[in-house]
Design brief:
The protein is an alpha+beta fold and about 250 residues long. It contains 10 helices and 10 strands. The chain is globular.
Length: about 250
């Protein structure tokens, strides 16, 4: 569907904006598949397109000159790529790829620039996502400094689960190790701990969520605050608990 109607679009940023602002973007939204490891944004290169996921998960990664990588943030159908464009920049030192395949919409950067110039309320709406992502990045840093690998993995699995359909996610040990910036054996040990608590079931290349609430409790407060910030700013996308013991509506 090259020009989606707002009533049926699955990207939450698009569905929650005022109809008059969606109408500005609609002619420029083109349906595209998101394949695993597809390059969304190359680091230090001018952006050409903006992507609004409908399904799948996208990873924003920081990469050293030696090629070491760590995930700095992730988003799915609650968000969009190209946040630097909203902030007046044309590129980023970070690299963005598709982590879990899916589909969504693509538009030219020039069309987005014209749209936010035409509608300040549209620009303000999209900037709220930048604030939510800043909160996510801050809490990722906090989790990396204060929590052991198994708690960090619990948080990361919760975040991926939020953005996928169903309870099965295709994730290899190697990929999880890259995202958490740890060695593969550390991921294997952490998965065994989470399995031992009956939170998940891990088979070759697939992680199945078994006890979502237990995994949230185990995350020890590292999950929930950025999700609550997104809900406050944009709408109730994250409908599970904002933090352990607190109901989300």
């Amino acid at each position: 569907m090259p020009n989606p109607t707002q009533a049926f679009v699955r990207n939450y940023l698009l569905s929650k904006m005022p109809p008059e602002d969606f109408a500005i973007l609609q002619p420029h939204l083109h349906a595209v598949p998101f394949t695993k490891d597809m390059l969304v944004e190359e680091n230090d290169a001018p952006f050409e397109h903006i992507f609004f996921p409908s399904t799948g998960v996208t990873s924003i990664m920081a990469i050293t000159q030696a090629g070491d990588r760590v995930e700095a943030g992730l988003f799915g159908r609650e968000g969009m790529s190209g946040m630097p464009i909203l902030l007046g920049a044309d590129r980023s030192p970070l690299k963005t790829i598709i982590q879990v395949p899916g589909e969504g919409y693509r538009m030219d950067v020039s069309a987005l620039r014209d749209a936010i110039e035409q509608s300040p309320p549209l620009h303000a709406h999209l900037l709220k996502f930048c604030q939510a992502m800043a909160a996510q990045t801050a809490f990722t840093t906090l989790a990396n400094v204060t929590h052991p690998v198994e708690v960090r993995l619990a948080r990361w699995l919760l975040m991926v689960h939020d953005r996928t359909d169903g309870d099965d996610v295709n994730l290899t040990h190697e990929y999880m190790a890259v995202m958490l910036a740890v060695r593969r054996p550390s991921v294997t040990t952490a998965l065994h701990i989470l399995e031992g608590n009956h939170f998940i079931k891990a088979t070759r290349g697939i992680v199945t969520m078994r006890d979502r609430g237990g995994l949230e409790d185990f995350s020890d407060g590292s999950y929930g605050r950025p999700e609550a910030e997104y809900n406050r700013l944009i709408g109730a996308f994250f409908k599970r608990r904002a933090s352990p013991g607190t109901a989300m509506t």
